[in-house]
Amino acid sequence: MEPNRPYIIREQAGTTYYCACGKSQNKPYCDGAHKGSGLRPYKVEIEVEKNVAVCSCGLSAKMPFCDGAHKSIV
Ligand code: FES
Q: Is residue 59 situated within a structural domain?
């Protein structure tokens, strides 16, 4: 993946947990690495199969999804 670009993923319907702590070895998904940090993953209900853009830069105001804020990174 290129730096400062969202993860573009085709998600199936269901519950998905995205990493919020930055420590997951399976980004953008939670792998449990947050345990002990006081943080919790983003729990997202996907109602129908669709493409999503998950933030990788940490600047989005609409976490866990990309809002274009990565474009401000030079
Ligand atoms: S990757 Fe787009 S706002 Fe973070």
A: yes
User: Is 2 a domain residue?
Assistant: no
At 66, list the tokens: 């990309």
Distance 23 CA to ligand 1 centre (A): 17
**Domain enclosing residue 19, as ranges:** 7-69
Determine the 3-state secondary structure of 50 from DSSP.
Answer: strand
Ligand 1 environment, Cβ below 6 A: 6, 55-57, 59-60, 66-70
**How many domains does the structure of the chain reveal?**
1
Task: Give the pLDDT confidence of 13-64 residue by residue, as tens digits.
Answer: 999 999 999 999 999 999 999 999 999 999 999 999 999 999 999 999 999 9
pTM of the full structure? 0.90
**74 domain-assigned:** no
Q: Is the peptide bond before 28 cis (omega within 30 degrees of 0)?
A: yes
Distance 22 CA to ligand 1 centre (A): 14
